[in-house]
Amino acid sequence: MLNQHSSGVAFTGSGSARLGTVLTNDDLSRTVDTSDEWIATRTGIRSRHIAGPDDSLASLGAEAARGAIARANLTPQDIDLIILATSTPDDLFGSAGLIQAALGATRAVAFDLTAACSGFVFGLVTAAQFIRTGTYANVVVIGADILSRWTDWSDRRTCVLFGDGAGAVVMQKSDRDRLLGFEMCSDGSMNGCLTLAYQGQAKPLTDTVAHQQGSFAPIAMNGREVYKFAVSRVPEVIEKALFRAGLTPQDVDWLLLHQANQRI
User: Fold this and answer.
1) What SS3 class is residue 30?
2) What is the per-residue DSSP string for 183-212?
3) Global pTM?
4) Taking CA 67 as the corner, what is the angle to CA 61 and CA 68, rounded to the nearest 5 degrees?
5) What domains sit in the chain, N to C, each tagged with a CATH number?
6) β-pairing, 8-17 with 164-174?
């Protein structure tokens, strides 16, 4: 329920972008010990879109944002804030600014938000707070990743799971609040179950000062633990979000979940 000083939040436009190159399960079966049947029965995945050498995260995110802005009957100049949820920016300093420039959204503040699989949801909640406090009226939230560049394509346990794409929504100030409820949680103790970790070696700068220089390792995952966490904790979070919204599971028409795989 809104107080007299709060604005409601409405979702007024959505957009998406995906790459033209498709990698099928049969394609993967020619590079690692797997098959279409093995992948499909365990994950529900038949194919995934893959970024090419000349594709960028920023161009992918900008395409999704353009679609969302157009469907909201706005122009880039109407946008106050751009939030990019990604774990794979083109530049470690962030890609939201690149998207802002590509859109020509010169009035907009832009920043990256990194929360991996939960990033888009965290972005929605963050955007809602800016709108509800009256700070901004028109916000674009983008979820985009090019995970194929950080996948170990020789590891059949993980290479079948990841692809590339982007989605975006426009959220606007509204008299009626359309974000009925949300619940967020974090459990840092499970961090080691899914990593895209920095690895480096210590190198001396002087006789008394050393530094570490290296690169990021490919995605590594403990699939069993990720599965156990998802099927036990996600239902709890859904129930709490429904409670905050004053709803029951029987009231739900659509359940749109993170696309980790069909079994989860």
Assistant:
1) coil
2) -----GGGGGGEE--EEEEEEESSSS-EEE
3) 0.93
4) 90
5) 8-180 (3.40.47.10)
6) antiparallel
* Closest to 95 in 3D by CA, of 52, 144, 128: 144
CA dihedral 86, 165, 81, 102 (to 10 degrees): 110
Which residues, in sequence order, are CB contacts of 112 under 8 Å at separation 6+? 84, 85, 86, 89, 94, 95, 96
Q: How does pLDDT run along the chain (264 residues), one tens digit per residue?
A: 444 447 899 999 999 999 889 999 999 999 999 999 999 999 999 999 999 999 999 999 999 999 999 999 999 999 999 999 999 999 999 999 999 999 999 999 999 999 999 999 999 999 999 999 999 999 999 999 999 999 999 999 999 999 999 999 999 999 999 999 999 999 999 889 999 998 888 999 999 999 998 889 999 999 899 999 999 999 999 999 999 999 999 999 999 888 778 888
Residue 194's alpha-carbon distances to 67, 184, 214, 262, in angstroms, are 32, 19, 20, 18
